[in-house]
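User: Okay, second chain of the day. Same drill as before: sequence in, structure tokens out.
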Amino acid sequence: MEYNLPPTVERKRIAKFGYGLVAKRGIKKNSDIFRKIPALSVPITELRPTICSYCFGIKLQTEDFVSPATVKILIQCPDCKLTYYCSKTCKEADSELHKSGECQSLSKMGRIPPTYVLLIIRVIFLSGPARRKFYGAMDNMMSHLERLKLESRFEAMEVITRGTVEYTGTLLLYEQLLEIMAKLNVNSASVTNPLFEPIGAMIDPEFALINHSCDPNCMLMFDKNMMILRTMRDIDASEQITISYVDNAHPMNERRRHILETYFFDCQCSSCKVPGGRTIDHFDLRDMLICPRCARQFQPFNDDGKINVKDCPDCHTAIPPKTLELVDVKGCDKLLKEEVVTEKDAQNLLLEIQSLNKCFLPLNRSPIANCFDKLASYYYSDTHRIFDELFFTFCAETAFDGLFTPNVIYNGVIIARQFRILTRIFSLAPVMLQQSVLNPKVPNIDLILFVQSNTLLKSIVLGYGPDSLFEKFVKASFYDVVAKRLGKAAVARFAKFDRTSPAYSQEYATFQKFITAPSRLPSTLYEKKPIQS
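Assistant: Same drill. Structure tokens below.
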């Protein structure tokens, strides 16, 4: 089987990993190893009516502060009525695969099936050289089928496989299709928008060669349907290319649990198995607790992932049982699954986060920070822009921070979090601009927004490469809006500033005081109506 690899990497057998990708020569950080369209990809079931099935352009009406949109209209397939395209060009580019059997199968079903059924239908109806290449690559993929048979989800896999045989009329045997389904389960990945929110699923032979590390040297990201493998640091010749298969901001226990349950291996990377053994002073911000009494930072896990502390190592303040439960994988998972649908849900989650923050868990540590991202989608939606005192506090304490990533480098997760925080401050801008005319103590919000959006644009170029969809969206939605308000002379002056400039630091300090003192905010900030930006 021939792989279509760039000249900088090669497929090689690696001890304890099987096959993987290895650098043939040194590769500089913030470089593309490859940019390619995945062999097979589909929008996720829930979003299929709002996403182009070929280029993954998102319909404009889905746009909000969190999910940048890319297209204005979608064209429905006139036959199955379950597939959508943003243009005739995309419809024609996808027609060979869609019309080979996918369209007919979806018409029989009469509804959009689960995402992985959509993906396996595309696998079934591949033809010609593309089919030979893909099926040849699948021969080298692990399925872990025997392990999956012991899992509770296997029964659902069997039902899906039988249904797929019935609706597609495939000549593949049931056992063959079950093996393919198992391989998709282990070797596929999410297609994400610029903020790493899943919008699709994909599988690709070259991608399947990349192994996992919790301290990876590369990141996989997408610009619409373009899959980008980009370096996050310098890579030496003969060094293995790695990405993180899971949310790399989560604590060690949560990462290892997810890896074991989904990919069936126990992660032994340098972040999980520290050379010489993990101690209480081992510095990994993803795991750190902070004592509310003496401010001592420490991490609670030993090298096996078990909690080995019950109190602060300095002042011996006892760690509350609730905190110990949360740093355990089950407690972490429970908090992350909290739904925020109503105002009551949001307030309950905010109160829970507030109580956790008072007992050793920093606001900017996962899973609390992840819950704030969830709350941001609720509080700053187009129809429900309500603000909360604790939310202000969070913005002030974590704004523009590298947060809890293990290395301060330009990568997509940091950039996405910076973007979310910028949107929070941008939402406050109308009220603050209105007040600044009457109150000189209100910070120069346009200076803050301009410097941060300018810095974010530079980070996006480094992290995603030039001319990305994300860069264009941030420029149009934030930078250009503020630059127009400021005028050319102010833009020329502020362009020399960065986040370390004394003038910026002074304004940002004023901003922190402003948003952490809600009693000084105008009452309109708490009215239950949209605030126009």
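The longest strand covers residues 9-14.

User: Thanks, on to the next one.
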